[in-house]
Design goal:
single chain, ten-stranded mixed β-sheet, 4 helices, alpha/beta, 2,3-Dihydroxybiphenyl 1,2-Dioxygenase, domain 1
Length: 174
Amino acid sequence: MKTVVGFSFTDSPVQHLTDLGFSFHGNEETLKYGYREFSCCFESLNKQSSDPLLHLEIREVIDEVVYFKFQSQKNFSPFIAEKNSLNKIDQHLNGAIGVEEVLFSDIENSEMKKYFLLKKKYPLWAVWLKCRDLKKFENYDSDFFEVVEWRNQKALLIPMGPLCYDLLITEKIN
């Protein structure tokens, strides 16, 4: 299964997403590698994907020296990895149901591209999620997201910082 990995140096991004109704699983066993792992699992909504599941993972880095001792990648660039896991798809209280696409710096020209060019240091910019009802998100504290337009539809953008992917959420249209 594919895992989209991003980084943080505090638990704030995970706490914000939990407050927005996402279900994260913490892994304390990774502390010996210098980080605490938080992950949640989604269904892949992209029909071209050969992998039906996709994990979002946020690594809260506790000790940079220990972290880099065990990693081949010597920076905090978000990346996609393979993960062996038997996790089932999480049920998120906010109605988020799946991943539409992982967005890189080669997206089409738009206001969102200009935004990402200013905010993101690395080329993996965002994960585009679909939800059943966008209003469920709007009922949460609006300090956690911005309302934007993405591909001619209303979207919510949850900024996660320069070392992590942002989340872009739109409503699933049947």
